């Protein structure tokens, strides 16, 4: 078929509009703050073969896992799909990522023929298991983590599967939130089905199918052409998780990227064997994090579809932390995903130094607090704190912003306090937490919580306490993570990953790292340094120590002569 460029552009934009409308539907109808405020969910449209045609501006870490999950759906139910069906899965060993992320797939038909799938992934507040939030990093096997849902029909020909809904209801701590959020995902799938149907009706299924295939081919061509312009070679980088929480041994992640002939091979050999803790990343998630890392340095106009994935080969040894064997636990696999991004960008920076930023905060912190209120009703808080970007080759890093591998937001303080027995005493930037450089990293975030309930279980998952967010091109690393229990009383320093029982009035203080710096700190414009001091982002002592800039205490301005002498020294 002859492809008309105007029709091609219109259909591409229409698909993008469909998935974004699906995403807006989730926001408008979800029950929990982790979805409607933090925005930990994703939406996509796939063709009848399970190839992703378009993805919403949602969690990047999720969407590269869709192909593996779709392959399992088609393998198990490809001959038994009907209008009104909706399939669900969360099992990491059957195409999923970790148990809180529940995938919904709605097959979409036109004139009796399967034409595609609406896909919505939502991070549920709780999926059962030993710890509220089902996101503990200290579980040692998946059977401890919660309810595993294999690929199963949640709706069949439009009728809900009452047995499955009852099983979910009886296995989660906050069923009204979980079932409400599943309802929001279902509503978004229905929106996708309706709007996708309009495209098929307008252009005809045969024409639409041809243009959608061309859209993926186009993404592949553009991606391959750009990679072909990158310097050929092999680039290796290693970074570390501080530990798995059970021992003090660091957990290495290593990638070797081979650039050749418009293709990338990303080989994770040399990474840690699978670990005892719940930090293992399933192969689908490893692929997703690898794809998104490459996509983040591609030109912006490359379509976000499966065509990009065709240019990237991902290898991860079975039995490693990036391709675990059953029953490896993986609830906290996102932390490993964030480090995969840092490792990929560290390798890509060797080939593309003018495109890649320094390391960010190391991924969001997940703080889960759960228990029973005085009336015996359960509560579960899952607060995901997103912090700072590293400095970029031509700009400072950004603070209080989502990690590049996500597309999330910090939960508003008012929402947490209104819905849970918790008080947020402080929500602020941490001065001097950035890595110094010609361009400095973003500042880390501080949150301080006071428990107002009689007791509760706290699980906190963080990192970058020992292995700091790295700088590039001479930039300095950022300040490490800090966790303090009851800072005004016992002032007890806590590790990066821990679980503890809190009592009424207990306080937990968490400080995230900032982002690494880019370039020699002594080449930073002194006026930028003075502005940071004036804005309380750094102290005058930091300016002097890291940048060689002397600030006049009486005027707040740069002492030019003293700065020149100090920098020369």
List the SSEs and their pairings:
Layout: H1 5-29, H2 33-36, E1 41-47, E2 52-55, H3 60-63, H4 66-77, E3 86-89, E4 101-110, E5 113-123, E6 152-156, E7 159-160, H5 162-171, H6 175-203, H7 205-228, E8 233-241, E9 251-260, E10 263-267, H8 283-295, H9 306-309, E11 312-315, H10 333-351, E12 365-372, E13 378-385, H11 413-419, E14 422-429, E15 445-451, E16 455-461, E17 482-485, E18 492-494, E19 497-503, E20 507-511, H12 526-534, H13 540-547, H14 560-568
Parallel strand pairs: 10-11
Antiparallel strand pairs: 1-2, 1-5, 3-4, 3-6, 4-5, 6-7, 8-9, 9-10, 12-13, 12-16, 14-15, 15-20, 16-19, 17-18, 17-20
Helix pairs in contact: 1-6, 1-7, 5-6, 6-7, 8-10
Query: Count of DSSP helices?
Result: 14
Largest sheet, strands/sense/barrel: 7 strands, antiparallel
Q: What's the count of strands?
A: 20
Number of domains in the coordinates?
3
Whole-number mean pLDDT: 96
Derived from helix and strand composition plus strand pairing, the structural class reads: alpha+beta
Strand order across the biggest sheet?
Answer: 2-1-5-4-3-6-7
Rg (CA only): 24 Å
Strand proportion, as a percent range, falls in: 15-25%
Overall 3D geometry? globular
Low-confidence stretches: none
Q: Which range best describes the helical content: under 10%, 10-25%, 25-40%, 40-55%, 55-70% or over 70%? A: 25-40%
Distance between the termini: 70 Å
Description:
The chain has helices at residues 5-29, 33-36, 60-63, 66-77, 162-171, 175-203, 205-228, 283-295, 306-309, 333-351, 413-419, 526-534, 540-547, 560-568; strands spanning 41-47, 52-55, 86-89, 101-110, 113-123, 152-156, 159-160, 233-241, 251-260, 263-267, 312-315, 365-372, 378-385, 422-429, 445-451, 455-461, 482-485, 492-494, 497-503, 507-511. It has 14 helices and 20 strands. The protein has 3 domains: 5-221, no CATH class; 357-519, no CATH class; 525-569, no CATH class. Strands 2-1-5-4-3-6-7 form a 7-stranded antiparallel beta sheet, with helices on both faces. The chain has a 5-stranded antiparallel beta sheet with strand order 14-15-20-17-18, covered by helices on one side. By secondary structure, it is α+β, with helices and mostly antiparallel strands. The chain is 31% helix and 22% strand. The longest helix has 29 residues, at 175-203.
